[in-house]
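Task: sequence design from structure.
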C-alpha cells in the first residue's frame, strides 16, 4: 500500500498552514489576477476597436451553367450564359464536370485594383477570360498559377487593374465535393484586411487546439492514462475538421500538403474523427453506458466507424461523401439518443459539458451536410467556424475536467476510508524504507511489537526480529511466488519468543506489508505436529512416530550399522483399569515410560503402539547390548512397585527382541518382534525372547508374512490346487470310495505349502472367504463332471473356516454355488469345527438346516478338542462326528484316551451319527478303533492325500493300502464283513455311507 494515499489533504487545509505573507501572495495570484483579466477582456470586447473584423462584401450576381459534356468553347459558353438568370451562388451538388460562369466588374478608376475572390475551398481549377474569350486573364490550379489568378485563402483570387469601363469576365471552373460557387469583389485594402483576419483565425484555432492537445498529451504521459491520449487525438481531429471547413486543410503547421494527397487524407480524417469520437464517448461514459444498456446501439456505433474507415480507403472522394453523410446521420442519432439517456440517468456536470460539446460539433457537421444537400449554410464565416471549433473543444475539456474532479473526489473518499481502515484494522500494517527503518505504522503494529518506554515510534526491522528476518523479507518481496513468510521474534529473558506471519510487496522503492502475531497458532501447530508422532498420555512416540524412526533406521542400516527392535507387552495390565479405574492405569503407564526412558541411552527410542504395548528401537546397538538393556527394563518395570496415591501396583512385562536385517520392511520387523514377545509371554521365567538374524523361527515368521502378503487382496493367489485323502469304511473297506478335499498351495520354488499355513495366513489377512469360495466351486464342478466315474463315493468332506461361516456375504454366495449343482450336493459333507459351531449356536444351527434341506451332510470336526459341552449336540442335527486326532494317536498308550474315544463313538451311535477317526497311523490303531465300533478311519496308514486323477482311477479306498498288516486286516474284513454289525444297507437315511 503506497504512502501517497495518506497525504490527500484538502487545498483549504494546506492554505491555512501558510504564513500570512505567503497567503496574501497566493490569493493575489490565484484569485485577483484571473478576475482582473476577465474584467479587462469584457471591457475590451465592448469598448475598444479591433484592427480586424472586415466584413465580407455582398456576393456579386453572376450567370452560371454546367458543361457535362465538356464541349463548350469560351465563345459558345458566353453565348449560352446570356440566357441564364443572375444568381448570388450556385451549389455543384457533387458534380465534378466543368461549370461556366460570367459576371460584371464595374469601373474602378478611383478605387484602385479590384480583387475578384472565388472563395470555394472545393475549387480545383479556374480559368478566366475577358468578355467572350477575347483575352485570357489567367488560369490557376492548386499546383500552378498563370496570369492574374492565384490561390488565396480558401479559393482563388483574380486581380484586375483599374478600368474606366465596366468589364465582363467569363470563367470556367472544376470542383470536387459539396462545392458552392460564389463571387466576391474586394478593394485591395479590404481584401488585405480580410486575408489578415483569415490567417489570424487559422492561427488562433491551430495554436489554441494544438496547445490544448499538447497539454492533454503531456498529462496522459505523466498519469499513464490512455483516455487522455484518446482525448488528445480527438482534439487533433477537431483541428483537422475545422481546417477542412475553413479551407486550409492543405496546411499542416508550416508545411504544405501535396494536392494529390488531399482527397485520401480528407477521407481518412473524416472517418478517423468519427471512430475516435465514438471511442471517446464510450470510454468517458463507460460506467453510465453499462447502466443504461442498449448494447446493440453501441455495437452499431462501432460498426459505423469501421464502415467509414473501409470506405475511406476504397472509395473515391465523390462516392465517399454520401457514405460519410449517411454514417454521420446514423451515428449522430444514436449518440444523441444515448446521451439523452445518460443525462436522464446520471445528470452530472461532465455529462452536461460533453452534451454541449457534442451539440456544437453536431451542429457544425450537420451544417456542412445541409449546405451540401440543400444549399443552406449558417456558418459561412471564418470567425464562426473558429469559434465553433474552439468552443466544442473547450466544452469537451470541461467534461474531462469534471470527470477528473469526480475521480479526484472519489479518490479522496477512498483515501479517507483507507486511512480510517489503516488506523483501525487489527492487523499490523507498515511501510519500510530501503535501510530497514519504519516509515509508517498503524496502531495495531505498534501494539504487536510495542513502543519504547519514551513513547517514540518503532525503529528498525532488525530491532524486533531474529537474525536473518530482514533477508527473509527481501526474499519474499523479490520472489515471483508466495509473498508471505513466518518470522521469529527476539527471545525475552525467559527464552520465549513470539512468532509472526508477514506478507509484503515492493512498491515505489519501499516495502509495504502486514504483520500478524501467530504465536498461539504456531504453538498449536507445534503441538499438533508433536502429537502427530507422539502419544498424548505418556509423551513418548506413538505408532506413526516409532514407525518413521524405524524406517529411517532401516535406510541408514545400509552402512552395516547394527539395529535391534523390541516389542514390550504388559501382563494382565487390564486388571488395573478394571479394578482401580483408567486413571490409575494411565499413571502406571506414565511412570513405566519414565523408567524405560531412564534406561535408554544414545540413539534409542520408545513408542507406545497400543493400550499396554510398546516398541523399543535400538539404533547403532548390537543384539547383545540391546538384550542387556531389555533385561534391565524387565527388572525395573516388573519388580519395582508403582505408587499411585496410597496404593502400590505391581506390573510385569514381556519383551520380544529381534535383530533387524538390512532391507527388512517396517511392518515385517514389528510383526516378527510381536511374535517373539508372544513367545516370551509363554516363558514364565525369563520374560524375554531374542531372535537373531539367522534364527530359524525368525525365518519362519518371515515366510509366514510373505505368505500372508501373497494371499492378501480380493484375488486368488497363483498356485492353488486341491488334493483328496481317502476315508475308509471299517464295515466294507473295499466297497466305498469316500474322501476329504484338502487345500494346497505351490510356491515360487514349486514346493507345496502345508494347508495349515495357507489357512492361517488367509485367515490373518481376511482373504479366507475368497479361498473357501474357490474350493467349494472347484469341488462341485469336479464332482458334477466326474459323478458317473465315482459309483462308490457316498460323501466328500470339505472343511469351511469359521471366518467364512460367520460371513453373511459368503453364506449367500455358498447357496448360490450349491444351487448351480443340485445333482451332486447330496455327495457333499461340510465339516464345521466344534469351536466355530459353539461360537453362535443359533446361527450355526440355521446354516446346518439350510444345507441339509438341499441334501448336504454335516460333520463336526475336531470333536473333543475344545471345551466340549454335550448339551449343544441337541441343537445341531449333524450327520457325523470327526474325533480329534490327538485322542486317536495316544489311544494305545493312555487308557483314558481310549475310554474317551469309546464314549464319543457311543454318543454318536446313540444320536444317530457316524463316527470318523482321523490321524490313524498303524494297523493296531485301526484294529482298536474297529473293536470300539468306529465307522470310518482316515490317515496315512490308509492313504496319503491323492490327486483327483488318482481318485478317479481307484476302485475303493482300500486300494491305496500299502501296509501288509492292514491289507490282511482288510482281507479278513472282506471274509467276515457281516459279522461286525449292520450292513450299509441297514444304515439310517441320514447316515454317511
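Answer:
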Amino acid at each position: 500500500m503506497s504512502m501517497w494515499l495518506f497525504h490527500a489533504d484538502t487545498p483549504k487545509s494546506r492554505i491555512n498552514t501558510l504564513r500570512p505573507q505567503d497567503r496574501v501572495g497566493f490569493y493575489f495570484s490565484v484569485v485577483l489576477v484571473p478576475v482582473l483579466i476577465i474584467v479587462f477582456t469584457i471591457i475590451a470586447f465592448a469598448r475598444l476597436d479591433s484592427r480586424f473584423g472586415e466584413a465580407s462584401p455582398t456576393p456579386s450576381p453572376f450567370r452560371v451553367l454546367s458543361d457535362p459534356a465538356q464541349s463548350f468553347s469560351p465563345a459558345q459558353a458566353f453565348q449560352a450564359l446570356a440566357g441564364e438568370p443572375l444568381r448570388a451562388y450556385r451549389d455543384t451538388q457533387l458534380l465534378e464536370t466543368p461549370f461556366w460562369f460570367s459576371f460584371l466588374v464595374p469601373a474602378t478608376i478611383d478605387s484602385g485594383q479590384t480583387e475578384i475572390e472565388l472563395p470555394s475551398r472545393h475549387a480545383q481549377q479556374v480559368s478566366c477570360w475577358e468578355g467572350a474569350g477575347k483575352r485570357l486573364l489567367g488560369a490557376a490550379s492548386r499546383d500552378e498559377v498563370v496570369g492574374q489568378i492565384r490561390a488565396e485563402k480558401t479559393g482563388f483570387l483574380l486581380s484586375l487593374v483599374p478600368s474606366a469601363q465596366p468589364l465582363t469576365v467569363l470563367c470556367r471552373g472544376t470542383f470536387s465535393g459539396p462545392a458552392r460557387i460564389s463571387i466576391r469583389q474586394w478593394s485591395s485594402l479590404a481584401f488585405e484586411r480580410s486575408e489578415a483576419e483569415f490567417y489570424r483565425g487559422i492561427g488562433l484555432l491551430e495554436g489554441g487546439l494544438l496547445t490544448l492537445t499538447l497539454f492533454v498529451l503531456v498529462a496522459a504521459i505523466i498519469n499513464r492514462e490512455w483516455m487522455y491520449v484518446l482525448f488528445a487525438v480527438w482534439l487533433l481531429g477537431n483541428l483537422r475538421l475545422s481546417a477542412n471547413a475553413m479551407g486550409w486543410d492543405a496546411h499542416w503547421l508550416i508545411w504544405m500538403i501535396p494536392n494529390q494527397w488531399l482527397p485520401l487524407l480528407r477521407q481518412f480524417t473524416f472517418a478517423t474523427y468519427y471512430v475516435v469520437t465514438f471511442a471517446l464517448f464510450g470510454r468517458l461514459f463507460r460506467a453510465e453506458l453499462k447502466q443504461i444498456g442498449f448494447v446493440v446501439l453501441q455495437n452499431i456505433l462501432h460498426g459505423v466507424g469501421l464502415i467509414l474507415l473501409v470506405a475511406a480507403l476504397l472509395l473515391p472522394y465523390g462516392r465517399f461523401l454520401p457514405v460519410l453523410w449517411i454514417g454521420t446521420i446514423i451515428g449522430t442519432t444514436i449518440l444523441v439518443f444515448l446521451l439523452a439517456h445518460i443525462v436522464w440517468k446520471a445528470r452530472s456536470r461532465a455529462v452536461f459539458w460533453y452534451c454541449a460539446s457534442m451539440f456544437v460539433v453536431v451542429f457544425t457537421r450537420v451544417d456542412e451536410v445541409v449546405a451540401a444537400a440543400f444549399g443552406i449554410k449558417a456558418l459561412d464565416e471564418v470567425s464562426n467556424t473558429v469559434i465553433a471549433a474552439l468552443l466544442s473543444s473547450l466544452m469537451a475539456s470541461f467534461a474531462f475536467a469534471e470527470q477528473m474532479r469526480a475521480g479526484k473526489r472519489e479518490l479522496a473518499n477512498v483515501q479517507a476510508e483507507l486511512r480510517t481502515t489503516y488506523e483501525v484494522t487489527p492487523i499490523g500494517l507498515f511501510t519500510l524504507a530501503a535501510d530497514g527503518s519504519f516509515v509508517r505504522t498503524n496502531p495495531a503494529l505498534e501494539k504487536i511489537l510495542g513502543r519504547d518506554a519514551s513513547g517514540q515510534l518503532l525503529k528498525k526491522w532488525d530491532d524486533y526480529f531474529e537474525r536473518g528476518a530482514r533477508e527473509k523479507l527481501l526474499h519474499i518481496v523479490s520472489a515471483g511466488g508466495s509473498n508471505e513468510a513466518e518470522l521469529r521474534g527476539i527471545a525475552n529473558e525467559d527464552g520465549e519468543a513470539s512468532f509472526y506471519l508477514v506478507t509484503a510487496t515492493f512498491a515505489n522503492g519501499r516495502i509495504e506489508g502486514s504483520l500478524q502475531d501467530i504465536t498461539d497458532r504456531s504453538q498449536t501447530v507445534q503441538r499438533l505436529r508433536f502429537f502427530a508422532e507422539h502419544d498424548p498420555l505418556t509423551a513418548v512416540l506413538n505408532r506413526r512416530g516409532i514407525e518413521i524412526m524405524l524406517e529411517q533406521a532401516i535406510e541408514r542400516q545400509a552402512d552395516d550399522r547394527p539395529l535391534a527392535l523390541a516389542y514390550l507387552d504388559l501382563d494382565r495390565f487390564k486388571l488395573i483399569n478394571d479394578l482401580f479405574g483408567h486413571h490409575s492405569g494411565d499413571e502406571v503407564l506414565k511412570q513405566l515410560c519414565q523408567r524405560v526412558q531412564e534406561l535408554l541411552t544414545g540413539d534409542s527410542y520408545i513408542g507406545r503402539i497400543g493400550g499396554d504395548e510398546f516398541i523399543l528401537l535400538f539404533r547403532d546397538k548390537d543384539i547383545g547390548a540391546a538384550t542387556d538393556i531389555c533385561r534391565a527394563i524387565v527388572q525395573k518395570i516388573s519388580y519395582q512397585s508403582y505408587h499411585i496415591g496410597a496404593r502400590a501396583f505391581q506390573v510385569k512385562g514381556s519383551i520380544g527382541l529381534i535383530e533387524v536385517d538390512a532391507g527388512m520392511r517396517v511392518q515385517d520387523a514389528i510383526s516378527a518382534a510381536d511374535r517373539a514377545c508372544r513367545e516370551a509371554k509363554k516363558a514364565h521365567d525369563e520374560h524375554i525372547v531374542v531372535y537373531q538374524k539367522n534364527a530359524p523361527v525368525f525365518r519362519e515368521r518371515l515366510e509366514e508374512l510373505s505368505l500372508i502378503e501373497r494371499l492378501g487382496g480380493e484375488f486368488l493367489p497363483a498356485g492353488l490346487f486341491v488334493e483328496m485323502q481317502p476315508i475308509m469304511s471299517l464295515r466294507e473297506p473295499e466297497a466305498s470310495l469316500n474322501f476329504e478335499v484338502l487345500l494346497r498351495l505351490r510356491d515360487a520354488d514349486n514346493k507345496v505349502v502345508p494347508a495349515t499355513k495357507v489357512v492361517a495366513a488367509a485367515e490373518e489377512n481376511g482373504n479366507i472367504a475368497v479361498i473357501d469360495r474357490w474350493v467349494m466351486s472347484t469341488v462341485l464342478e469336479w464332482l458334477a463332471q466326474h459323478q458317473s466315474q465315482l459309483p462308490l463315493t457316498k460323501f466328500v468332506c470339505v472343511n469351511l473356516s469359521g471366518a467364512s461361516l460367520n460371513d453373511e456375504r459368503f453364506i449367500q454366495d455358498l447357496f448360490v454355488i450349491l444351487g448351480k449343482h443340485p445333482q451332486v450336493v447330496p455327495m457333499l459333507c461340510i465339516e464345521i469345527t466344534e469351536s466355530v459351531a459353539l461360537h453362535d449356536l443359533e446361527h450355526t444351527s440355521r446354516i446346518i438346516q439350510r444345507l441339509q434341506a438341499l441334501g448336504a451332510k454335516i460333520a463336526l470336526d475336531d470333536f473333543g478338542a475344545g471345551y466340549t459341552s454335550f448339551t449343544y449336540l441337541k441343537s445341531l442335527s449333524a450327520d457325523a462326528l470327526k474325533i480329534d486326532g490327538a485322542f486317536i494317536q495316544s489311544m494305545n498308550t493312555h487308557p483314558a484316551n481310549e475310554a474317551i474315544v469309546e464314549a464319543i463313538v457311543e454318543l454318536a451311535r446313540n444320536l444317530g451319527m457316524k463316527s470318523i477317526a482321523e490321524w490313524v497311523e498303524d494297523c493296531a490303531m485301526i484294529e482298536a478303533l474297529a473293536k470300539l465300533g468306529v465307522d470310518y478311519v482316515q490317515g496315512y496308514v490308509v492313504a496319503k492325500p491323492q490327486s483327483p486323477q488318482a481318485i478317479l482311477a481307484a476302485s475303493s479306498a482300500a486300494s491305496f493300502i500299502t501296509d501288509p498288516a492292514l491289507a490282511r486286516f482288510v482281507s479278513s474284513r472282506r471274509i467276515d464283513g457281516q459279522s461286525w454289525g449292520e450292513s450299509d444297507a441297514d444304515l439310517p437315511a441320514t447316515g454317511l455311507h
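The longest helix spans residues 382-424.
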